[in-house]
Amino acid sequence: MNVRRSAAVLAAVAVLGAAAPAAADSSPSPTPQALPSALYGDTDPQYDGVWRQSLALLAQHAAGAEPPKAAVGWLTGQQCADGSFAPFRADPSAACDAKTMVDTNQTAAAVQALAALGGHDAVTEKAVGWLKSVQNKDGGWGYTAGGPSDTNSTSVVVGALAAVGEKPGEVRKGGKSPYDALLGLELPCTGEGAGAFAYQPEKDGSLTANTDATAAGVLGALGKGLLVEPGKGDGAGSCVKATTPEQAAANGAAHLAGALAAKGYLLASTPGAEDQPDFGNTADAVVALAAQGDTAQARKSYAWLEKNAGDWAAQSGPGAYAQLILASHATGADPRDFGGTDLVKQLQAAGPAAPGKTTEAAEKAEDEKDSDSPFGVWWFVGVCLVAGIGIGFLINNRTKRQQP
Q1: Which candidate, 139, 171, 167, places its Cα nearest to that of 153?
Q2: Fewer beta carbons within 10 Å, N or C terminal of the chain?
Q3: What is the phi/psi pair of residue 399, to 5°?
Q4: Residues with Cβ < 8 Å from 248, sequence gap 6 or more?
């Protein structure tokens, strides 16, 4: 789900912000490193490498395509000795230490991808062991070990547990299961955002509806991962007070269906973009609705994506193609005929088989180094930090404060 990518962007902003100098740093930029040839995409993987790779492998598996061995080997090689995964380790031979930015989202996504491919039990068992070791006392997980539980992180870990045959409801900490955490993050059936999930509670303990978290929460409450088989059913029900994870999932799906009904897509909530569609979040919502059984709305919104999401995917890269392939699989559609585009071919073209891969991030860094413009990387970081203060949880195309 995009929320993992968004959390990765937040992590990037936080790290860069902590390191930002009081005045502009005139020291030369480090020479950019060439990206691994086995990695999907040609943008900087520092904050989403494992997540991006995991979705790419999972999507190809869903489409019946065998991923290149080099791509799978790169992913398994990113694991730390304790079982966790960082977004990107430039030198996998170097041991992870306290400075290695491991997180639950990358780790859980890797588990889901490798479990689906099969033959990687040692890697997935060690990863699940680490995830269990950092479970919070409320039963959930935060993006980083020890961080406050959030709907998105809890849900992607639930998907990892289910992928290896664990029963998520039996994975407990302090007597609480992941389902307890998710039930505590769902809004009641009265008032604005009825039935939706929040990302995290506000400072005052209140909950704010978040469609990205809701899509994740539906899957988590159903005990499902990112790869969803086509569901059965025709429509969403009404919101009923949730005392079980199944009812919480039904409530969340009803909220998503209502949000999608008017235009067929979800809106981005970034400042100044109120009327812009959020393609990634819409794809996630399609998967969630299909998992719940609301196939009617899922197929309608998938049809909208077929007509409108091609340019977005081409600009966004392998993670976007993977999301659309997973949405296609969940609705029983053909990812090789997505409005005339072969999504699988496009995804594979961004992977190890693609000749002459370039490193877009490296090229941009070189341009900045040679430029006399004062509007360089630190200006960009400053903008991100300011936005982060107001938004709270900046995720690629969406934010923590996303409204229904």
Answers
A1: 139
A2: C
A3: -130, 165
A4: 182, 183, 186, 197, 217, 221, 242
